[in-house]
Amino acid sequence: MEDGTLCQWSVFRSLLAIVQWWSFNVTVIIINKWIFQKLDFKFPLSVSCVHFITSSVGAYMVIKVLKLKPLIVVDPEDRWKRIFPMSFVFCVNIVLGNVSLRYIPVSFMQTIKSFTPATTVILQWLVWRKYFDLRIWASLVPIVGGILLTSITELSFNMFGFCAALFGCLATSTKTILAESLLHGYKFDSINTVYYMAPFATLILGVPAILLEGNGVMEWFQTHPSPWPALIIIFSSGVLAFCLNFSIFYVIHSTTAVTFNVAGNLKVAVAVLISLMIFKNPISGLNAVGCGITLVGCTFYGYVRHMLAQQPPGTPRTPRTPRSRMEQLLPLVNNNDKLDDKV
Predict the structure, then answer these.
(1) I need a labelling partner for 255 at 20 to 30 A (CA). Which of 76, 168, 215, 249 fits?
(2) 136 and 332 in contact (C-beta within 8 Å)?
(3) Residue 16, number of CB atoms within 10 A of its CB
């Protein structure tokens, strides 16, 4: 009886963690799109900067004030040599995501973001000369094919937004790869990641945001019919973005790796459906098929990755070159590869 009760509670806790993760993620994406489209606040650098500031404050409150998470102590020298480069890539990743949201629909942006596993593998293969099992390459075929079909048939296609989303995938992949080498020896969770990286990201982005968008923000504030309620919505998006990081930490510790992967792909489908209902952007049948193929490919990729990780040592694999020291430092995908939705 006790085992059955514990099992039911574990399942309920996992479902609750997934639902709250989905809720925060979809809400952040939708509210950011609402800010750019409905509030006419077309300043992605400023929105990203607000997210970084609120996340810095939130992480400080959780770790230092409420003490809900223990602080992972980082050597002061490592903060500049390791954390700062990661923060720069982290900043680029978030900014490109917000830029793409301004120019392309949520459904298209989310589909392109699903291209991240492919860019990670290709980047490791080209730059670090890492070799992968043939099953990994096979799992990338539906992802690439789905992205191509979605891009060709996208009715609201915008080249600038498409490039921003695509380079955002490259930034995410670079962050994933660099994290294992630069943060080697530090077992960061999502909250400590935000605690260290968000302040650096604020410093990196603050000056460009003021120089490039400062005048536009002031003009928007003077001409918008309801600036204060709009500002509340903008800052609320930053609070929700931090809550998303907290929910990611909770869901990782409440589910298995396979469940997390499947839930992550279903989350994309939920975000796409809700965005279509709210913003009513046109979508063709082939576009929907391409999006579906991409999500199925991502799920298959996660399954293949999990199966390879479960193989006992000594299992025959696809012939490959000897592992270099750099390859030993770089896993197939960092454990934090899903922690890049928003800061």
Answers:
(1) 168
(2) yes
(3) 13
Is the pLDDT at 277 greater than 50? The verdict is: yes
Q: How confident is the model at residue 167 (pLDDT cuts 50, 70, 90)?
A: very high
- Each residue's pLDDT tens digit, 208-227: 999 999 999 999 999 999 99
CA distance 238 to 242: 6
Q: Which 3-state string (H, E, C) describes 24-91?
A: HHHHHHHHHHHHHHCCCCCCHHHHHHHHHHHHHHHHHHHHHHCCCCCCCCCCHHHHHHHHHHHHHHHH
Phi, psi of 267, rounded to the nearest 5 degrees: -60, -40
CA distance 245 to 32: 16
Please check whether residue 115 is in contact with residue 145, taking contact to mean a CB–CB distance below 8 angstroms: no
For the cut 50, the answer to whether the pLDDT of residue 252 exceeds it is yes
Q: Which residue has the tokens 């694999």?
A: 317
- The structure tokens listed for 185 are 């020896």
| Residue 131 vs residues 143, 173, 321, 325, 326: alpha-carbon distances, Å | 19, 16, 7, 13, 12
Q: Other CB atoms closer than 10 Å to residue 62's CB: what's the count?
A: 21
**Does residue 195 contact residue 59 with C-beta atoms inside 8 Å?**
yes
Better-scored residue on pLDDT, 213 or 336: 213
How many degrees, rounded to 5, is the angle at CA 126 between CA 125 and CA 129? Answer: 55
pLDDT at 57 over 90: yes
> Residue 314 pLDDT > 70, yes or no?
no
More confident position, 315 or 268: 268
**Whole-number pLDDT of residue 64:** 93
Residue pair 176/127 in contact by the 8 Å Cβ criterion: no
In three-state form (DSSP H/G/I as H, E/B as E, the rest C), the secondary structure along 245-310 is HHHHHHHHCCCCHHHHHHHHHHHHHHHHHHHHHHHCCCCCHHHHHHHHHHHHHHHHHHHHHHHHHH
pLDDT value of residue 343: 47
Cβ atoms < 10 Å from Cβ of 205: 23
Distance from C-alpha of 338 to C-alpha of 304, rounded to nearest angstrom: 17
